[in-house]
Amino acid sequence: MSFFDDKLSLLLNHRMTWLNARANLMVGNMAHADIKGTVRREMKPFKKVLERHHAMPNKDGTQVKMLKIDSKDIVKTKTEVSRESEALEMSHNALEHDAIINTVKNFHQLVKTILNMSQAG
């Protein structure tokens, strides 16, 4: 097991994959917003996607290393596409994406600090 091959790293990676797929789906929704009667498509909840792909963290450490989202992870709603709603969802998605990136950056900075401290003393 490598240094960054732990359950938390895998879970963050899976969440980023889910968020990216969700962002692509929202872009598609926005592109079809002018077509009357087009219904909104969205990702199934993150936990449901993890369960379907058997990617939930578990005790024995056997997790799916790469989450591959497909059409079975997407649902059509009964709601028509609204540009305003999609824009709001896209900004929420981007904020969560940025929060994960910052978490990973902070973790890497912490590791660097610890390694530098160990070299000094």
Describe the structure.
With 121 residues, the protein is mainly alpha-helical. The protein has one domain. It has helices at 7-31, 46-52, 83-120, and strands spanning 39-43, 74-80. A two-stranded antiparallel sheet has the order 1-2. The longest helix has 38 residues, at 83-120. The radius of gyration is 18 Å and the shape is elongated.
Strand order within the widest beta sheet = 1-2
Query: How are helices and strands ordered from N to C?
Result: HEHEH
Biggest pleated-sheet summary: 2 strands, antiparallel
Helical coverage, percent range: 55-70%
Question: Class by helix and strand content?
Answer: mainly alpha
Number of strands: 2
Arithmetic mean pLDDT: 89
Q: Compute the number of helices.
A: 3
Uncertain regions: pLDDT < 50 for 5+ in a row?
none
The end-to-end distance, rounded to whole angstroms, is 27 Å
Which descriptors apply to this entry?
single chain, 121 residues, mainly alpha, two-stranded antiparallel sheet, 3 helices, 2 strands, elongated
Q: What's a concise summary of this model?
A:
The protein is mainly alpha-helical. It has helices at 7-31, 46-52, 83-120, and strands spanning 39-43, 74-80. The model has no long low-confidence stretch (mean pLDDT 89).
